[in-house]
Write a structure and sequence with these properties.
By secondary structure, the chain is mostly helical. It has three helices and two strands; from the N terminus they run E-E-H-H-H. Helix 1 packs antiparallel against helix 2 and helix 2 packs antiparallel against helix 3.
Length: 112
């Protein structure tokens, strides 16, 4: 017979990546190898997403934003909107630069 004054045992923690049960002392998942808590891989942290997106991933950084366990859903939406806005702005600036180069080359060749 169970004593009603005892609290229920804590539910096992689950891995954020594969969803399997973890021991309380686990720093890494035994099944998929992903870090847990403070041991999350650098590219799933806020600064890692910012660096990876800025130095080469561009809009593909949205995948990291979607998969990170560090951010809450509202924060993920804000980061995704920011990355999308910067991507659209850079695309527009690239389009303007191409039009300017075409205009300069057109004037240099004598076409109007």
């Amino acid at each position: 017979m169970e004593d009603a004054s005892l609290p229920p045992p804590p539910a096992p923690a689950l891995c954020w990546d594969c969803g399997r049960a973890l021991e309380p002392a686990d720093r890494f998942c035994r099944f998929c190898g992903q870090g847990q808590g403070e041991h999350v891989t650098w590219y799933y942290r806020r600064w890692g997403i910012l660096v990876a997106t800025g130095l080469g991933l561009g809009p593909f950084g949205l995948v990291l934003v979607r998969r990170t366990p560090v951010m809450a859903p509202p924060e993920k939406w804000a980061w995704a909107a920011g990355i999308a806005a910067v991507t659209v702005w850079l695309g527009y600036r690239l389009y303007q630069a191409v039009l300017m180069v075409k205009a300069v080359l057109g004037m240099a060749s004598g076409q109007f």
